[in-house]
Fold this sequence. Notes:
This protein folds into 2 domains: 144 residues; 331 residues, Neurolysin, domain 3 (Orthogonal Bundle). Helix 1 runs antiparallel to helix 2, helix 3 packs across helix 4 and helix 8 packs across helix 15. By secondary structure, the protein is mainly alpha-helical. The termini are far apart.
Amino acid sequence: MSVTETYDEFCLRVRELSDLGHAAGMLGWDQETQMPKRGAQGRASVLGTLAGLHHEKLVDPQFADLVESLADSVLEGDDEINVRETRRAQQRAMRLPKELVVELSRTQSLAHEAWVEARSADDFAQFQPWLEKLLGLQLRVAEAVGYEGSVYNAFLDEFEPYARVEQMGPLLEQLRKRLVPLVGAILDRQRGPDPSFQCDWDIGKQEAFGRQVIGDLGFDWDAGRLDVSVHPFCGGVGPDDVRLTTRYQADQLTSSLFGIIHETGHGLYEQGLPPEQAGLPVCESISLGIHESQSRMLENMVGRSRAFWQHQLPRMQEFFPDQLRSVDVEQMYREVNRVEASMIRVEADEVTYNLHILLRFELEQALVAGEIAVADLPGIWNERMESYLGIRPANDAEGVLQDIHWSSGLMGYFPTYTLGNLYAAQLFVQARHDLGDLEAQFARGETAPLLSWLREKVHSRGRRVTATQLVEEVTGRPLGIDDLMNYLEGKFGELYDL
């Protein structure tokens, strides 16, 4: 076959692999949103089968020979990238026995259901054996695929390709040293919740307003939907089918809203990936850190800005006229940016959020290194929360069981949230430089210029460069902590008169 014919065959096979991944993804979405409780065993079996088929097709010797022949050919542009990224995934997969892949997939599905039950019962002991099994399986994966330096790199590489804990660790330590004094200074001036927001908020109206905000931010409803799940997430099968979820609480107005805005950031990224490369590696996100940069930017730098509420508060008052009649923009701005030592990561403010991530980052490294046991997690978690934030969880549900990630074996995922905050801050500084007064635009309800800029600079790039390359190309600077800390110190210094 000619190089062109070989590449066409390559694309056909890669798109088949993508279809299998999408099928598994949709079944995972269904498990989170609609699947009946008794469907867990059957769903685990189906997902295991799909994982096995995907693995078989990826490591097929004929396909491996085809990929190697293309890797040795003179390819350019997207063709070269698609082959490079497929070869990288293939070489990793070839080191994994199919039996391990299937067992891991089935265990992840069953462990998720065990976590839901344990969280509901506030009983870590119910989930402990599942987490022990998942950790053991993931360590087997790490040893099979190999790694350089810390074993944690094998976990991290799954979510932030080419990242290494040896580089990330010092960066996060710099952040911790500058963040802890800021948190302490703010908490010394901590304000309690505004009583104006201590009332009931109709869930139907919360959903209706949230949908309106999602549309305002540029989400294409013809290519997406919103549902309810235990833990908010964004899923789907590509730019034309993006699934957002959130959860609602009748006694909290903004919890679901900011969950929605966060997931919309993910959704906009997915909808902006290059459609002409659908089913191929180029039409995939660069990394979870870049993915999180889009959600954290939209949630915090847009959604928690004073300008955003200048436009959105009158619209929200139409849904909640009785509760919000006397609330003004400044009051709303202060409420959505209130800093407090909170138990729950997804509800944490911008300032304390990264301390939640650092706690998890430290525990994961200790777990995979064998320095602590799974059984020790609740106690160590509680001690670190008290050390970092001065509060101690009253139970496992608001402590070690609060996050979904470990129930899916996603060790190495958490650091991408803080990386996302760092990427977001640096990109936002550049966007303001390129686009002018973003706050004036937000106050008029105009987020389209920022979205267009992100489409050009980030979304449409797909997986053409690495995360660090992208940030340096767009901003002209390597990744650092200054933009994030300058943003936090400036914003919250004003709010808390520091």
